[in-house]
User: What shape does this take?
Amino acid sequence: MTRRRREVPTPELRCPTCAAEVEPFWAHCSNCGRRLEWRDTTKKTGAECYYCGWVVSDSFSFCPWCGRDIADRDSSPEPLKAPKGFRYDRRCRWGCGGGVMYPMRHCPWCGRGQKWRYDDYENICPHCSKGVNDWMDVCPWCGQDATGRDLIRQALRRVRQRLVVSRLKTWNYRVLLRPGVSGVTHRSPKVIEIERRYVTRKRSRDEISWNMLTGLILHELGHSFLYHNWSLTRTGRFRRAFGEVRKAYRVSDSKWVDFERRGVTTTLANYVTAYAATHPQEDFAETFRFYVTRRGRLRELFAEFGRKRKGVPVFEKFLVLGDYIRSLRGWR
Ligand SMILES: [Zn+2]
Ligand SMILES: [Zn+2]
Ligand SMILES: [Zn+2]
Ligand SMILES: [Zn+2]
Assistant: This one.
């Protein structure tokens, strides 16, 4: 005869407001931002913090979540490894000897702050530097904008306006701040990464102007637009104008590119800017940036090209882009 065991259901970890999946001990839902509470609903420990209401152990001296002193006569006189209901992940980083569980913010034995590695996450929050994923709108740890878009609102607004007046429909691109890099990859063509060093709340040496940031975002949007409309690169007209975009290349971020520059360079006859000459994909991204910055007004732009003695290939690049954008609107 088989012995039956009662199945212990795994608790559904979903946001009570929007039903998005959440992870244990997140302070906020990463989708709607609702504040989460982790109570002792399953009576695992029989104790909740008096202050924040989250699950604790009777043997703790400090709440590992809000950090307050909750010591009483049941508190363990010695730091423990992992009391009932908690897992041992590692020792307290301050050497009190007690064990701590991810993602406790404080040691439950000595109360001091704990830091964790967030290796399973794709990015780090520009507000609290804890782990976030690219699809998250709200940081599950601090409750602020996980993408950092709130820090570059002015530039994003300007970018959106420029796209509208250039009569470009949005393709659901997603701008986010990331440490160490600006760019777009073929793997995730709708994600526009902006080096977060350029955007700090306190003014620093690396911070760049709103104009520069707008230019940088528009340039990166050019890459995203091309990935999103990759079939364009296979047409004969595109290849004659821009060349082979599949050509391998390496971009060194150390090369400072002046994306704030709105004027056309006079040095290279067949490229809109010097940077455009580095690779066909950069050529397209710079052409895109100029097209959108100048609101798609080709007549004005062509007059300037004429004055600056630009070659026929530059005119053709803008016509290729302009015609393609028109074809997207169904005006073929
Ligand atoms: Zn939610
Ligand atoms: Zn607490
Ligand atoms: Zn400790
Ligand atoms: Zn955060």
